[in-house]
Design a protein that fits this description.
This protein is an alpha/beta fold. It has helices at about 15, 25-35, 55-60, 75-80, 120-135, 150-155, 225-235, and strands at about 45-50, 65-70, 90-95, 105-110, 135-145, 160-170, 175-190, 195-205, 210-220, 235-240, 255-265. The structure holds S-adenosylmethionine. The site of S-adenosylmethionine has 21 residues, from α3.
Length: about 260
């Protein structure tokens, strides 16, 4: 399992369903990490598991040369479409456990639980080793992962509905657009740490009928000790773990850990 199988039909509506993620604020945080941990800002950055390219485009707009890797052709296709006015981004369809670049980069980002899609500790280690291999000496790796608290208490065995139907324009009048609904059923297996997501997408068609597509995704819940061990085994020095973009310490109810690590060479 590569982790990208569940990113086919959902690619078309992914950005609408994740509209609440503030990538501008996230990119501000990335740049604060550059300033805190690097002697100078990097010129070339890899966005690993770039998905539809939200972080890639944020960083490209701030002047970084970008490489963007993802395993899903459908997600990359969306990213490519969004980047038509931002020439020069190198998009590569590769598995993050064994990706290859032409040379090293100054920093790697990997955002929004992408590493939780690696379903075995050895896959995490292989990915970290590839990141180490393609980072400049002392280059920076910024990534996040969902916490055990989130798997146990938020994902759990819960069901959610995501929907996107209307947009408000600046004059506060509504503009209707095709509706998207996503039913999302989780099954968490504490014994294996695996959490399965069954997603049913309903997209409104021009004739008012709805098209249904189903996706199945699996994430793995990693303990902080496992992540730290894999970083150390890959030659990545952990610089910090935080619970938000203001470098706050994680607590027992933190849902996402944000990490910074440096390539020791
Ligand atoms: C939750 S999305 C996040 C995408 C993007 N980073 C963002 O912030 O929106 C997870 C992404 O990881 C990718 N992915 C999962 N497993 C992968 C693998 N083994 N190799 C490459 N990409 C993978 C999926 O295709 C998907 O685009």
């Amino acid at each position: 399992m590569s982790g990208c199988e569940g990113y086919s039909a959902i690619a078309r509506v992914y950005d609408r369903l994740n509209a609440e993620i503030d990538y501008a604020a996230w990119a501000d945080f990335v740049e604060r990490c550059f300033d805190r941990f690097l002697p100078r800002r990097p010129e070339l950055v890899l966005d690993l598991a770039c998905g539809t390219g939200s972080m890639t485009l944020q960083l490209a707009a701030r002047g970084y040369d970008m490489i963007a890797v993802d395993g899903s052709a459908e997600m990359l296709s969306e990213a490519y479409g969004r980047a038509v006015d931002t020439p020069g981004i190198l998009f590569l369809q590769q598995d993050m456990r064994e990706f290859e670049l032409y040379g090293t980069v100054g920093a790697v980002t990997c955002c929004l639980d992408s590493l939780n899609y690696l379903l075995a500790p050895d896959d995490l280690l292989r990915t970290f080793r590839c990141v180490h291999n393609y980072l400049d000496p002392d280059g920076l790796f910024l990534f996040d992962m969902n916490t055990p608290y989130k798997f146990q208490n938020v994902y759990g065995n819960n069901a959610y509905i995501l929907e996107d139907e209307l947009v408000w324009d600046e004059g506060e009048e509504t503009e209707e657009r095709a509706a998207v609904f996503c039913g999302w059923q989780n099954t968490f297996h504490p014994d294996t740490g695996l959490c399965e997501f069954d997603l049913s997408l309903f997209e409104e068609m021009p004739d008012g009928n709805y098209r249904r597509s189903d996706e199945h995704q699996t994430e793995r819940c990693y303990l902080l000790t496992e992540i730290k061990q894999a970083l150390a085994d890959a030659g990545l020095e952990l610089l910090g773990v935080w619970s938000d973009f203001s470098f706050a310490e994680p607590t027992d109810v933190t849902e996402r850990w944000y990490f910074a690590a440096r390539a020791k060479k």
